[in-house]
Amino acid sequence: MYQQPSIDYRLLVDNMNTAILLVDSQLNIFYLNSACEALFDISLLRAHGQQVLNILHAPNDRFNTYEALQNTLHKGQAYTRREATISVNFKDIHVDYSVSQLHTGKPYHPLLLIELNPIDRMLKITKEENIIQQHQVTRQLIRGVAHEIKNPLAGIRGATQLLARRLNDPQYNEFTDIIIDEVDRLRILADTMLGSRQPPSYNLINIHEPIERVRALVTSQTKNKINITRDYDLSLPELYADRDQLIQVMLNVCVNAVQAMTENKSFMQQRLPALILRTRIHRLVTINGLLHRSTIRIDIEDNGPGIAEELLEGIFYPLVTGRANGTGLGLSIAQNIMQQHNGMIACQSIPGKTVFSLYLPWESNHATA
Ligand SMILES: Nc1ncnc2c1ncn2[C@@H]1O[C@H](COP(=O)(O)OP(=O)(O)OP(=O)(O)O)[C@@H](O)[C@H]1O
Ligand SMILES: [Mg+2]
Q1: Hey, which of 142, 255, 323 would you mutate to test ligand 1's pocket, going by the most ligand atoms within 8 Å of its Cβ?
Q2: Which residues form the Histidine kinase domain (predicted)?
Q3: Nearest atom of ligand 1 to the alpha carbon of 318
Q4: How many whole angstroms from 261 Cα to the centroid of ligand 2?
Q5: 100 C-alpha vs ligand 2 centroid, how far in Å?
Q6: For residue 78, how far is its CA from the centre of ligand 2 (angstroms)?
């Protein structure tokens, strides 16, 4: 005889993509599911007991949220709001949400069930997918160009050496040396454009080990002039990754941050350069069309002048640079390595706070090993 599988409903709610919030008759939050924790970026522990009005009611909102919540609570009148701005942790989030009464079976203890659908996340997903697709196309283009540049270089170098030997005249050696030096510079550039030829070699690692290595490198290179704060979640699981390639990604990002903080003296006049290295679990991230329930997020945050808006859009494209002698390859290479790990880098920047976030999925991570 068919037996229905028994389901732990708490588990079910925690696996849903819809963010759910439960509120008691005093309008205090007493439960949020995993999707809601991810949306608000706070844990149940921190949210528990907070007034839901602080979250749902924006200061300039003409809608009387308090009255609407009371109506639902006591009269069972459900309501939905579209494109509402709610505020969590000083951050505005745009959502559609609906509020309904939840029957508990006890007449004097009605609860409120609030279901939220973020609008930003959908917009962000589309934007990120576009970035990744365009990035792949540009990357191929760049590799093609790099190959074409590289091919004749060996010939030019060889011919110049021959010419120098034939001329055998110190007066002309200066010129042939210039040609050889410039050819060598181009070859290094083309190699960087081509990226690593080594396929990644995946090993089970604790992500904090390469992060600590990067921290040590940055500390010694900057001669302790930059204040580095570590904010690690030490309970993060181990994952399969190429340690050396991840070090390259983090170094590329850290070097940019250090350059931004040290090369802009006027902006940094009033502040000490500070770097924060943060690790977290980040739930529900869509990368290249795939929804990942759980990822490891590494934030590299600096307090430099930030990235100009017109540069920000194309920051991960090769050859996009804001520095006079930059090649604009650092972030493109970093993004490429992250994609090979099924992850990605995203960036948010305002003057005084630039955060590069590296996302590495880990729940399906073993399959890539
Ligand atoms: N933390 C940051 N703060 C301010 N601007 C940044 C930051 N990170 C990157 N940028 C900007 O993004 C640009 C692109 O960075 P990217 O690392 O790809 O190239 P690059 O640093 O110019 O050259 P290189 O190939 O030597 O790394 C930089 O030139 C800089 O203008
Ligand atoms: Mg760089």
Answers
A1: 323
A2: 144-364
A3: 18
A4: 13
A5: 51
A6: 52
Asked whether residue 274 carries a pLDDT value surpassing 70, the answer given is: yes
* Mean pLDDT on 131-159: 81
Residue nearest to atom 5 of ligand 1 (CA): 307
322 touches ligand 1 (CB under 6 Å): yes
Decide whether any atom of ligand 1 lies within 6 Å of the 252 Cβ: yes
Q: How far is the CA of 67 from the centre of ligand 2 (A)?
A: 53
Ligand nearest to the CA of 307: 1
Q: Above 70 in pLDDT, residue 1?
A: no
Mutate which of 135, 321, 356 for ligand 1? The one with the most ligand atoms within 8 Å of its CB, which is: 321
**Of 211 and 107, more confident:** 211
Are the C-beta atoms of residues 337 and 319 closer than 8 Å to each other? Answer: no
pLDDT of amino acid 126: 59
The pLDDT score that the predictor gives to residue 259 is 95
Higher-pLDDT residue of 107, 81: 81
- 110 or 33, which is more confident? 33
Q: What is the mean pLDDT of the chain?
A: 86
The closest-lying atom of ligand 1 relative to the alpha carbon of residue 302 is 1
pLDDT reported for residue 365: 54
